């Protein structure tokens, strides 16, 4: 098993164990960024948030949080 395979397995396990907390972190980061930019980039932040959650869902194959 190569280094990348081991890393992917560890990342998958972390997402399986803590996917809900990771999704909450994504939401919190998006909210903070939106507040600090005073809503100027809300659409872009929302798109990034959605893509991050989609990637999270692809990694473990289940919905860990609602996409905005």
TrEMBL record:
<feature type="compositionally biased region" description="Basic and acidic residues">
    <location>
        <begin position="51"/>
        <end position="68"/>
    </location>
</feature>
<protein>
    <submittedName>
        <fullName>Antitoxin</fullName>
    </submittedName>
</protein>
<dbReference type="Pfam" id="PF14013">
    <property type="entry name" value="MT0933_antitox"/>
</dbReference>
<dbReference type="InterPro" id="IPR028037">
    <property type="entry name" value="Antitoxin_Rv0909/MT0933"/>
</dbReference>
<feature type="region of interest" description="Disordered">
    <location>
        <begin position="29"/>
        <end position="68"/>
    </location>
</feature>
